[in-house]
Amino acid sequence: MAYTALPPIVLSFAATDPTGGAGIQADLLTLASLGCHPLTVVTALTVQDTSGVEAIHAVDPECVTEQARRVLADMPVQAFKIGFVGSAGNVAAIASLVAAHPRLPVVLDPVIASGRGDRMASEEAMAKLRELLLPRATLLTPNSDEARMLAGPAGAAPGAELSECARRLIGLGCEYVLVTGTHENTPKVINTLYDARGEVRADAWERLPGSYHGSGCTLASACAAFLARGKNMTDAVREAQSYTWAALAAAYRPGKGQHLPNHLLAARSIHSAAEHG
Fold this sequence. Notes:
Layout: E1 9-15, H1 23-33, E2 37-49, E3 52-58, H2 61-74, E4 79-82, H3 88-99, E5 106-108, H4 123-133, E6 139-140, H5 144-150, H6 153-156, H7 162-171, E7 176-179, E8 188-195, E9 198-206, H8 215-228, H9 233-249, H10 263-276
Parallel strand pairs: 1-2, 1-4, 4-5, 5-6, 6-7
Antiparallel strand pairs: 2-3, 7-8, 8-9
């Protein structure tokens, strides 16, 4: 009997999303679409639909730890992806877990608010995120609003330069920061990757009409997938953006609120382009 070669394995820490558009469900779809095997650790249960978040129930930190320890002891992981953590206690638990695997890339999506503007992270959780998880992050993927909030009072000022916010965030310990421009008032969406030297690359994307749920989760998971597959950071970031833009361009609106990314169609279109490129 022949066995298929082992795909890259990525462990995602995130909350559930009953719509399937964001959270751990988006991570599953993205990672599988890009040829990885996803492992999942649930940090919170959410009550939401495509129009908004009704409630959040954080999972106990001990349960988060035990979920992760079991799979980490059982399977070889190539990368971590961290989304909404649920509580300050969960930040500490996850930081301890990833610290035990210092050679693995860590992609951190600092979910502070939903794409619809629902505030999700407490001030205590944000403080712990800065203190414990940013120093563990290989790549931080905030949108411009999140970058300003995480950078502190100086960064939170209206119109604060995103390059300065990125500099402050890198000063807190993360290796790379990819600031996305979906919330900026620009003709195109400009996503910029920074490291300790400054700007590494900037990519401009057509600004799509409509409102989308799960774009940040999709982008961060795609970055983790390409890093797990052995891409260097600049290539991983570029290919992850391409996949995410394709998923949003093919999005559909099954409910009464936001559109959901079409993760599977995006994967097929990218694979087809690669075959004929």
